[in-house]
Structure formats: C-alpha cells, structure tokens
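Morning F.,

Quick status update on the modeling queue. The single chain you submitted on Monday has been processed. Sequence for confirmation:
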Amino acid sequence: MSKAVLVLPEMPKRCADCELCDQISPMADEGETEYFCNVKYNGEQVKTKIAEKKRASFCPLQPMPERKTPNWCSTHDIGYAQGWNDCIKAIEGSVE
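Structure tokens below.
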C-alpha cells in the first residue's frame, strides 16, 4: 500500500479541536463527551472518552518538520538543506 500525507492547516492541541475527530454527545445521565478518532491506530479505530486538555497519547498526527538553514561552509550541507526545504514546500503545496 502506498503512503499518503494529510496536511492540516493547524496542529490541534486537543482531540476536540481535531478535524478528524467526531464528537458523540452523551446521554443525560452518562456524563463526559466521547470522541471518536477517524484515524486508525494499529489497524483499529479508537473510541475513547477524552478528559485531558491535550491530544491523546495514541494520536498519529505529527507536526511538520522545520525548514533547514544551510551551513554555508559546505556545499553538501547547502544541497541537503535545499532538498529538505523543497520537500517541505511540495508537501505544503507551495512549489512553484
């Protein structure tokens, strides 16, 4: 299976803010709201109550890597940094 990248406009700080998360409203006597992650974790979908104020430990989202600043003393470093930054631009969709 080939790999894919999903770029979100902003990294969510908690599950409730994530575009990939569905909220299930509780019954009146059940208490906490449940969140259903639409991304599979180890091949299974996760349905869990989230009470924390951060992303769940099983969250598969990762922040975009930072751009590299080349070391101008080495042509190898310059080429590596340029290639790295070009890949990030392609993922972001900002390739000209």
